[in-house]
Amino acid sequence: MIIRLEDVHKSFGDKDILNGITLDIAKGQSVAIMGGSGTGKSVLLKHVVRLIKPDRGRVWVGGRCLEGIGESEMDAIRLRIGYLFQGGALFDSMTVEENLDFILRRHTVLDPAARAARIGQALSWVRLHDKGRQFPSELSGGQRKRVALARATVLGPEILLCDEPTTGLDPVSVRTVSDLIVYLRNEKGTTVVSITHDLLCAEIISDEVHFLHGGRVVASGDFATVRDSSDSILQEFFLA
Question: Is pLDDT above 90 for 1?
Answer without folding.
Answer: no
